[in-house]
Protein 1
Amino acid sequence: MKPLVSDSPHIRGKRTTRGIMLDVLIALLPATVVGCIYFGGAAVASIAISIAAAVVSEVVFRLIKREKIKDILAKFDLTSVVTGLLLALTLPPQAPWYVPLLSSVFAVVVVKMLFGGTGKNIVNPAITGRVFAFIAFQSVMVSGWIAPSIGAISPVAATGASGAVSTGATELTSMLGGNELSVSLLDLFLGTGVAGSIGETCKLALLIGGVYLVVRRVIKWEYPVIYIVVTGLVASAIGKDIGLFLPSILSGGLFLGAIFMATDYVTSPHTRAANWIYMALLGVVTAALRAATKIEVVSFAILLMNFFVPLFNAYLRPRVFGAPSFAAKLKSKLAAAREKRSAAGKEDAQ
Amino acid sequence: MTGQRFKQISLDGLLRNNPTFRLVLGTCPTLALSTAAFNGIGMGLAVTFILICSNVLISLLRKAIPDAVRIPAFVIIIATFVTIVRMVLDKFIPSLYESMGVYLPLIVVNCIILGRAESFASKNKVLDSALDGLFTGLGFTCALTLLGMIREVLGSGSLFGLQLWDFKIGFFSSSAGAFFVYGMSIALFNHIYAKVENKIRSKNFAVRIMPSPDLADPQNTLAEDAEAIAARTQSGADAVEAKERGSADAKSNGGED
C-alpha cells in the first residue's frame, strides 16, 4: 500500500458553506410560506424578484471578472439566494417591483462582491440592502405597510373591525408613537392582523426556523435569546413599565433580525464570549434607537454594530490551544497577589 | 510658451492631476454640491475663476511674498477673490448663491486653490500659472458636473433641472449616495486611466520582434510567417500581436523586394 502524503488538516468536517446556507434556507421556509399566505401574490413576486436579482447579479459580476461558467457553478454557495430571500422578507409586501430588484443588486454587488465575495463582506448584505431600500425609497418604506389578509383573532375592541387596523403604519411605529396596541399579544406573536414586512410578522414561524437552526447547530441558542431579552428589558427600562417587555419584543423585525441576521457568521465576532457582549449591545442599541427615533431600527442597529465586529475580534481573541484559560489566568494572578500580601504581612509581623 | 508646455499643463489639470478623481482634493464641496448638475457647474466655475485670479496674483507676487508667511498671504489673496465672487453671485444669480450656501465662503480654505498656489503659482511664471488655474478649475468643474449629473438623474429623475421621469431613488440625493457615487467614480476613472496609460506606454516602448532570416525570405507566404512567429511566442495575447506585427513586417519586406 502506498502511503498517502498530504498537508494538514487531515480530518475535515462535512460542513460546507453551501450546506449551512441550505440549512438557513430551510429554516426560513416557514416564515416565507406564512408571509406568502398573509400577503398574497405581491409577496411571492417580491421574493421571487429579490432572489432572482441576487443570483443573477452575482453570476454577472463573476462573468465580468472573466471567471469561467464552470467555476461559477462549482463555487456557487447559495449565499446570494439567502441574501435575496432575507432581504425580501424585510421589505413591505406592497413594495413596487423595482424596490426588491435594486436593493438586491445593491446588497450583492456593492456590499458583498465588491468587497471580495462570500466571507469578505464587512456588513451583512441583506441588512444593508434593506437600509438602502429604506433610504432610497423612503415613501414606500415608511407608509407602504398593509394589514395581512387574515385579520386579528382578538382585536382590541376600541379600534373596531379587524382588517382596518394599522394601515400605513406598523404596530411597532404606532406603539412607539405612544398609542395603545390595537391587537392582542397573541396576534402579535402569530402576525394575524399585524402590518409589517413579509417575513417579520409571524414570530411563530421565525421561532420554528430558529429552533431548526439550533438543532442543526448552525447557530447557538443563546445569541438570539440574549439580543431579544436585552432589547425587551432596555425598552421596559426606558418606558419605566415592565408591561412593555412583550409588546416591544413581539412587534417589528426583532425576531427576524436576531435569529437570522445578527447571527450571520461573517459579520459577528469569533468567540462565544464576544458574541454574548455583541448581542447584548445590539439589544441596547436597538431599544435605545427605537425610543429615540420612533421607527423600526433593527436593521440600522445591526448595520451599526457590524462595524464594531473587527474591534471585538481584535480584543476578544479565541484562546490559543493549550494556553491557560481566562479563569485560570485570573486564579494564578489572585494567588500571586495573595502570596505577596501574606509575605508583606509576615514582614510586618517581624 | 511652447506647445509642449501647454499640453503638459492642460493634461495635468484635466486628467493627470484631476483634483477630484486623482488628487482627491476639495472633497467637501464635491460631496455637498453634486446633488444637481447645475450646482456642480456653478461651484466649479466659481472655483475656476478664483483659481485663475489667485494663481495670477500669487505668481506676480511670488518674489515679494516672504517664505515664512506665504500661507497667510495666499489666504488673504484667495479670500479677496472669494468675497468678490460672493458679492457678484448674490447680486446677479441669487438662486445659485442660495443653493451654494456655506460652501461658497468656504472656498477660501478649499485645498485645491491653496494647493495650486503652493505647488505651482508660487514657483512658475504668470501665464503658466493662469493656464494651470484654468485647466485645474475646468477639471474640477467637469468632475463636479459629471457627479452632479449622475446624482441628479438617479436621485431626482431630472437633468439640469429638466424633469426626465418620475422614478426617483432618494439614496442618491442623500449624503450616503454622494459618498457612494464619488467612490465609484474615482474607481472607474482610475481604472480607465490606468488602461489608457498602459496602452500608450506599450505603444511607445513596444519591443519589436526582429524577423529572422528564414522569415525574411520572400518565398514564404504571409500566413506562414505569422504562424511561425505565433508558434514562437508563448501566450495567446502576445501571439495575436505578433501575428499582426509579423504580417506587417513581411509586407514591408515584400515591398522592398
Protein 2
Amino acid sequence: MGYATKSPWVIHYDASSCNGCDIEVLAALCPGFDVERFGIINTGNPKHADIFLVTGSVNERNISVVKQIYDQMVEPKVVVACGTCACSGGIFHDCYNVIGGVDQAIPVDVYAPGCAVRPEAIIDGVVQALGILDEKSKALKAAKRGA
Amino acid sequence: MGQKTIIPFGPQHPVLPEPIHLDLVVEDEVVLEAVPQIGFIHRGLERLVRTKDYNQFIYVAERICGICAFGHSMGYAETIEKLMGVEIPKRAEYLRVIWHELSRIHSHILWLGLAADAFGHEALFMHCWRLRERVLDLFEKTTGGRVIFSVVKVGGVNRDIDRGTLDEFVRVLEGIKDEYNQICNAFLKDPSVYNRTAGVGVIPTEDALGLSMVGPFARASNVNYDVRMLGNGAYGDLSDFKLITSENCDCYARMEVRAAEVVQSIEIIEELAAKIPDGDIAVPVKGAPADGAEACNSLEQPRGECYYFAKGNGTKNLERMRMRTPTSQNLAGMAVALKGCDIADVNMIVLTIDPCISCTER
C-alpha cells in the first residue's frame, strides 16, 4: 500500500475483554505511539467511523450491542479484532458466558493477536484494514456504476 | 417544570473505555435518579477455578482486569499462600510491592488522563498518557509485558530485578516527578478545572461510610481507611505510612487524593528499593490445599480494597474462589452522587469513582 486514500476514524468497543486490550487501543491513540499522525481519530459515533476496533470475547449480554454498532456503521466498513480473546476467545474460551471470538457475532476482516495486544499490532492491523477499506470502497463504486 | 425523560448512558460511550449502562431519569437538565445495569463484561471467571489448577488460575486471575492486573495476581497468590501455609522469601515480598506500587502509579496517571478527557481537556489527557508510557517501559523492561505481566507465582515471583535496574527505577521515577508536578498544577490549580469539579458529586463522610465505599473514592470523602496501613508483607517495613485523605468530598477532592497518591507510591518504591534484602525470590510449592481449608486476604488495589476468599477441596482445583472488588463497592456511591447532578456532569462523576467494570463483573 503506497498511500492511504482516506484518514480513517475508528470506533472502539469493549466486548467483555479484561481491559488490557482497551487501554492498549487508547495507548495507540496517545503520544507514545500516536496513530493520529496517520489521520486516525477515535470517535464515539458509529456513523462517523470507518474502522471498528473490537476487544474481548463477546458474551451473551453484549452480542446485541456489538451487532448494533456494526449495523449503524456506514459502508464501506472494516472490523479489526484486537487481542487473542477477540480472535478466538483466548484464555476465557471455556467460560460459560463467553461466545468465543468476535467473528461469531459480526464478520471480521483483520485479526490482531496478543494478550494483551501490543499497540504495534493494533497499528499493523489498522494499516491492513486501510487496504481492505480501499478495496471495499472501490467495489462499492464499481457496483454503483454497474447499476 | 419539564416532564421526566429517560436518557440511556452507555454501554458504548466515548468517555468509558469499558461498558456500563446507566438509565438516567432526567427532568429538565437535572438527573433525578441513575439506575446502573451491568453484565456486559461478565465472563464467569470464578467458575473457572474448578477446572483449572491453582497454579494455572493465577494467569486467569491476572486477566480479571488489565489495569489492576498485577494487584489481582498478587492478591490471588497471597490468598493461596495463606491457604497452604506457605511463607515466601522477604525479597519476593519486596519485589511484589515495588511492582504493585508501580502499577498504582500507572493506574492513577491513566485515570488522571481519562478525567481530563471527561472534562474536555484533551491536551492534558495526552500529556498524562505520555508520562504513563515511561512507567510502562519500566514494566516492560523487568517483566516483558506492558499490561499483563505473568510475573507472580504461588510461592514468590518469576523474575528478579537486579541492583542496576532498581537504581534505574528510582532514577526514572525521579525524572517523572518534575513533569508530573507540572501536570498536577494544571489539575489542581487551574481555575477552569476547579470550577468544573469543585462541589460536583458530593458524598459526605457519613454517607461514604454507610455505603461502604473504599479506596481513593472513600478517602476523598474523608474516610481514613487504606489496607496498606495494616502493614501486610513489605508494607510493614515502611518507616512511615501516612493516609491521604481530603475533606472536600467532591470530584476535586478525588483528583487531589489520587494526584497525591502517585507521589506517595514513588516514595514507597524509593524506600523499598534502598532496603530490599538479598536472597531467593521464590520457594517451591508442592501438594494441594487441604479439604475444607479456607483463607481470606485483602489488598489495596489502585481503586480500593479488594477482598479475596478461597476454599480448597483436597485436589489441585479449588472449591471456591471469590473476590469482592473495589468498584462493586463504589457503584452504590456513584448512584448516590449522580442524584440531583446536572446532566453535563454525569460523565465527570462516573469517571471519578474510577470504574473498573472488568473487575466488578469478572
